[in-house]
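User: Hello, beginner here. Can you help me understand these amino acid letters and fold codes? It all follows right here:
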Amino acid sequence: MQLSFLYDIVAYIYGENVTLLEKVKGKMKGPHGGKEVPMTDNQPKPRIIDNPDAREIYVNKVIGSSFDGAAISVTLGCTRVVPERLDSPPPQGHQPSVYVAGRLTLTPQAAAELVNSLNGMLTAISKTSAKPN
């Protein structure tokens, strides 16, 4: 899975050609007037309150993404094969349609957190799949 578009957007926001990992590990420059601001891990973590009514969506396609200068928008989709009639299969070689399932709009900071979270999961998945059984 490629997350390069999010890396590019974060680099654009901070006006530097550095990787997101360098920003997270070291010091950040950017919306702080160009001065360096050290990253700290001792900031209090907010309490997470689950909302059981929050809607969950299934997504198997990223349709597109954009950056408007302030927020990153990602359009998410799901492929579906809908037969013309219930008692007949779809025609042979028929391309399934992709339906928009939702849109996710993130602040640059939230996008960086999402990239870090996904990279952590992808690293764990690759390590698990690389282990011999």
User: Anything to note?
Assistant: The radius of gyration is 20 Å.
